[in-house]
Amino acid sequence: MVISAKDIEETIPIAQETEKFCPAGNSNNVVVSLELSDISPRTVRLTKKCKIIECCKAEKRKAAIPVYIITGIGILLLASIVGKLLNSNLNIIFEEDKRYHLSIVAYVNELNTTWKAIYNRFASRGVSVQEISVLASKNKISQEYLLGDTIEHIKLLKSKKLHLPEQFDARLQWPLCWSVHQVANQGGCGSCWAISAASVMSDRLCIATNYSNQKQISAEDLISCCAECGGCQGSNWALSAFIYWRNHGIVTGGDYGSFEGCKPYATAPNCGSPCSFEYYRKKAAPICQKAYWIRAEKGSNEIMPYVQEIVQETIGNERKDYESICISPASKLIV
């Protein structure tokens, strides 16, 4: 910087005034070049003053840096506090679920049956009847929507006086529908309503098209998109899934790890640890992932359970007349 004697005389204040803003001795490493026509004691004082002015400017530029550091520390502290609060809430929920399942284990073992129950750390608890009622009221789900034409359909079957066979195996009736032979694993998600509904839909699709359409209906799509149906905490009534299917449609999707269709099942059927060979038995239910996703064309005839469903109390006094109605989905267990 080149300053003439005239510039100094007119524009630069004296050094004593400048030192009010900058402590003395902070003018190091500041280079000021003076080109003067007249050397005097005043010029020496002005040289120091010019250095001090440049020093003050540099200090002001550095003052903004600590603000960013303090802001960053504040954000980290806030994130840490929020994380601890969330983790505390999750731990409370986990402990409540654990106590609930341990109470079930204790109750079953007190019965002294032929088998012993143990705690499953991957277990998840479904909602209670009271919680379901609250969810139903919030979503304004009517009884008509939940039940649809179920009662009328049962009355129609009753009026036809159909003869129910002693045994019925869907695998033998429709052997070319491979979905009929499959058994799904819902994992740690209370989605039995979605898996069973999607399985029935897939079966009916194959049967109605005379085996030409073997697409799998996605249980994951039902869980994700049908707000009035439910989720991993169970469902109000499985019929809601069929009403949703009729009104909105459902995409395709196979079992977990199958990569079939648009939206395969997302919850892993984790055993918790690798299965030892000693647990493999000819008649034991499969518990490892690989046992579930084999395409079985004929299935197994070794286990053939029959499930009796009793119509809900909405039928009223006629309920006893319908207790004999038996629905047999047939076992689709792969052994």
Structure description:
With 335 residues, the chain is mostly helical. Among the domains are: 2-62, no CATH class; 150-322, Cysteine proteinases (Cathepsin B, Chain A). It is 44% helix and 2% strand. It is built from twelve helices and four strands; from the N terminus they run E-H-H-E-H-H-H-H-H-H-H-H-E-E-H-H. The chain has helices at 5-11, 15-18, 41-62, 65-110, 129-138, 143-147, 150-159, 170-173, 192-208, 219-225, 239-248, 319-322, and strands at residues 2-3, 33-34, 230-231, 234-235. The strands form two sheets. A two-stranded parallel ribbon has the order 1-2. It has a two-stranded antiparallel ribbon with strand order 3-4. A hairpin with a 2-residue loop joins strand 3 and strand 4 (234-235). Helix 9 (192-208) crosses helix 10. Residues 1-63 and 282-335 have low confidence and may be disordered.
